[in-house]
Amino acid sequence: MKKKSIFKIGIVELALLFGISTIGMPNICQPEQVAAATSGKKSLRKFVRHTMAQNHVRGSIVVIKNGVPQKISYGYASNSRKIGNGNRKVVYPTGSLQKIVTGAMIVQIMAEERETNQEFNQNTKIDRWFPDLKNAKKISVGNLLTHTSGIKPTNTEVWRKHKYSESAAIKMTVANANKFSFAKVGDYNYNNANYILLAGIIRQETGQSYQANLHKRIVKPLSLKSTFTAAALPKSKLIASSYYSNGGANYCNTVNLTQAFASQLLGAGNLLTTPMEYYQIQCGLTDGTILTQKQFQYLTNLESKVTAYSGGLHIKKSGKLKIAYGNLHGTHFGMWAQLTADNQNGIIMFLNQTNDRAAKEKKVGYRILQHIKPGTFLPE
């Protein structure tokens, strides 16, 4: 096996943002073990694994059909360790799928501060936290959440050897942003820096680290066992290695995620979890565990929104679908989630072998989605 590079692997329901009772669609997320093994589940498992094999992708997928999630894994987590449906040690990077988590924590804090009569909302300008950032007096929190801030550094995913503390990662992001010209505030320019700065706001508003907020606001309320920032990963867990396949040989060009690389993506790509726990997070975004339905609607329909993207998700089909894609530059990971708004059907796909083409990864996922619920989902 030719190796390209090997490195040592080193959100509680709160008050409604507007004080209005939650009124929304059913949001029932059943634990996988509730449903007994049926011929239907076996058939679905066979179809998914066959589709993955045909397309030379490897990893773990949670397929949700009629409210029942099923984890289906195929391949190896590392050179000698199979991923396996029963392997509880393996975690995956979420890449940009983390952004909805950061956005949700921001909305939680907004709700808390509203109760104490403090002004913090989507229109608050970010010079409150980043006085040294160019254009900060013009940029709102909503602009960060919708990638309409005009901030556009191109070096947020560089393979640096230095491991950054949370505060250092934020300072570096401000400094780097100031080195680049800014686009017009209000225009859509997707950039990790927006969410790194949101992580900085979380830290300043709470006086606690991003990791502490993640544990308090996401991990603990949902009783998650395999969700951490890369810096807090316990030794008992294994980050899946990433591999390349051109459609021929498998497990080529191994690249492992390092803590140094992850540390610069605070709030934007340093989260590790499993597809099943990520499904739990998605359910928690609307069932009151993390956010209420109304808070979720606030986050995903911000005033600064100019595309389908708001708060970490693309909301499509008039609010019927939520979609997110993530990867990490220089690795072969591919992470894609597409779910119905009620979390009753969809897919969460964490791949650790791809051909580095997002379109191909989504095509594999879409084929599975069509098998689950034809005509419901989008091929993107």
Structural features, described:
With 380 residues, the chain is an alpha+beta fold. 31% of the residues lie in helices and 17% in strands. The chain is built from 10 helices and 15 strands. It has helices spanning 39-54, 99-115, 141-145, 166-179, 192-206, 210-222, 259-263, 275-284, 293-299, 358-372; strands spanning 58-65, 68-74, 76-78, 81-82, 90-93, 228-229, 238-239, 242-244, 252-255, 271-273, 309-310, 313-316, 321-326, 334-340, 346-354. The strands form 3 sheets. Strands 1, 2, 8, 9, 11, 12, 13, 14 and 15 form a 9-stranded mixed sheet that branches. The protein has a 4-stranded mixed sheet with strand order 6-10-5-7, with helices on one face. The protein has a two-stranded antiparallel sheet with strand order 3-4. Helix 1 packs antiparallel against helix 10 (358-372), helix 2 (99-115) packs parallel to helix 5 and helix 2 packs across helix 9. It starts with 38 loop residues before the first helix and ends in an 8-residue tail after the last helix. Mean pLDDT is 89; it is low at 1-28 and 31-37.
Per-chain topology:
Layout: H1 39-54, E1 58-65, E2 68-74, E3 76-78, E4 81-82, E5 90-93, H2 99-115, H3 141-145, H4 166-179, H5 192-206, H6 210-222, E6 228-229, E7 238-239, E8 242-244, E9 252-255, H7 259-263, E10 271-273, H8 275-284, H9 293-299, E11 309-310, E12 313-316, E13 321-326, E14 334-340, E15 346-354, H10 358-372
Parallel strand pairs: 5-7, 8-15
Antiparallel strand pairs: 1-2, 1-15, 3-4, 5-10, 6-10, 8-9, 11-12, 12-13, 13-14, 14-15
Helix pairs in contact: 1-10, 2-5, 2-9, 4-5
